[in-house]
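Troubleshooting log. The previous structure file for this entry was overwritten by mistake, so regenerating from the original sequence record. Sequence copied from the archived sheet and checked twice against the printout by T.R.
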Amino acid sequence: MRDVLTELLSEIDGDSNLGRRLGAAHVSYRYVFTDVDLALNITSSDQPGHSIRWSFADQAEWDPALTLEMSSVVANRYLQGRENLAIAMARGTIRCSCEASAALSLLPISGQLNACYRELPERHHPHLLLR
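Regenerated output below.
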């Protein structure tokens, strides 16, 4: 999962539109994948040529404004746009803690993020592709 997420974030950071939009939100996100003991922290970057930076550390250098906790199976569905965040939260398959503005900042670009993630299984990880 870490390799797939690193590949995804590298592509997002290299995509001038999507990376810029995610970085411009200036919101730090944390995803916790409960069944594989993995955390992903994402924030905007001030380094030239980069829009975002990320860390798989248990404790990032920055505090997240939005934390989503889910299993890797739910994450795969969510990242492919097959899992509705509000419904998953109501069912308890995704737990969310956040500042309201942080959650709202992710909504406008979630479709682009899903499309970018869906391309990875199509190209390199067909076992993850949901049909």
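The first strand starts at residue 29 and ends at 33. Archived copy saved in two places this time.
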